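General statements about sequence and structure are easier to judge against a single worked case. Part of our work consisted of pairing the sequence of a single chain with a tokenised description of its backbone. The amino acid sequence and the backbone structure tokens for this protein are reproduced below.

***
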Amino acid sequence: MPQSFSLPGLPLIVIGVYSWLVIAILVPSFGSIIVMSIVLLFYWKYFSGSWWSKGTADARANSFRAARLSLGVWKWGLVGAVLFVVLVQFSLVVTFRIIEFPAAQFTSGFNFDALPLGFAWPAIVMSSFVAGICEEIGFRGYVQVPLEKRYGSKVGIAIVSIMFTVFHLQQAWALPLLFHLFAIGALLGILAYVSGSLVPSIIGHAVLDIFNFSYWWSDVAGKFERRPILETGIDFHFVGWFLILAVSIVLFFVVAGRIRAVRQQT
């Protein structure tokens, strides 16, 4: 049996995320990207079970879900990650056709559009991968794995999704999206569980945040200016996005089932 490794998931997340905030303040321009890339490499290597101490390596690898994936699981895992991003983005569009998009709340605290465009995009990508890597290792790895073993996958995913929602409540944009946050946590938890790996959920989370940082949380990629259907009436734009959202949700769960089946076969 591997030696227990008891570092809690939430401090692990905070260490990673706030390292980027500190580095971004202290290190100028592209130097911060380079420094944080090195930090993330060390973060990934250590918490995936590499390096000292060897006594905790197996436990760290287990919490990281450090399994070697077959080609089939890789393929369907990436499809699941893409569908996750699509359905979350479409759910946001549908939501903000039902209620008014609170632009002031969403852009509060995010200053990417104030940066030179040549640096804004690298900063957005780095911020997205910091969140994706650190939060997935913490939530879907070091917190969810022990809960799955103790209470089963459904309870484990539900508990971590609640924790994921609470963790984001300090964000100004969180209150209108409480259900979305829970659903995002649940979908990422399902993706990690059925694939037996954090890689698909890390990719999905990071790509999702690239869209969020550049479009919803800043104006780097443009603005959302559609009005609620209470003002415009139900139009083709709303119906189209709603239908694609519904199809994406169904496809995600079909693909999740496929990932699990392929993994069991191999």
Q: What stands out?
A: Residues 69-265 form one domain. DSSP finds eleven helices and no strands in the chain. Confidence is low (pLDDT under 50) at residues 1-7. The two ends are 24 Å apart (CA to CA).
